[in-house]
Amino acid sequence: MNKIEHIGIAVSDLEAAGSLYEKLLNTTVYKIEEVVTEGVKTAFLQSGPNKIELLEASSADSPIAKFIAKKGEGIHHIAFEVDDIKAEMARLKGEGFVLLNDEPKPGADNKLVCFVHPKTAGGVLVELVQELVPNP
To answer: 3-131, what's its fold?
Structure first.
């Protein structure tokens, strides 16, 4: 794993949270994107090398809606950048971690993603992210 790529924060109101974090971090939201397959709308902010992903449920049965209903708004996951997501998934499986998906899937911000089950990661939802290579 190369570095912390971002911290994901579950929010009920993306616009209000975006305004709050713009003031807090003294920066602006640089990207808003919907990931239909995950039932989530995201907003990204960056301050220096640090990125925050705000996550709002776009459907009542999405993982973010369930998270907020159970735990309220707050830190949802921590994402780590990897060079080869498939190799990292295989390594983690070999170490006994449970992955929430068998194959990497497209995520927000031009990334391939895979999640590690929090029950096997000390109660923390861990996301692996690999930059998608643009087509030539």
So the answer is: 2,3-Dihydroxybiphenyl 1,2-Dioxygenase; domain 1 (3.10.180)
pLDDT band at 1 (very low <50, low <70, confident <90, very high): confident
> Is the pTM of the predicted complex or chain greater than 0.85?
yes
Q: Show Cβ contacts of residue 82 under 8 Å, excluding neighbours closer than 6 positions.
A: 1, 2, 88, 128, 129, 130
Write the pLDDT tens digit of every residue in 19-34. 999 999 999 999 999 9
Closest of 30, 70, 72, 32 to residue 50, by C-alpha: 30
Q: What strands lie across the sheet with 50-57, from one edge to the other?
A: 29-35, 40-47, 50-57, 3-11, 74-81, 126-131, 111-116, 105-107
For residues 99 and 93, the answer to whether their CB atoms sit within 8 Å is: yes
Q: Taking Cα atoms as reference points, which of 42, 18, 29 lies closest to residue 127?
A: 42
The domain locations on the chain are 3-131
Token pair of 14, please?
A: 């993306």
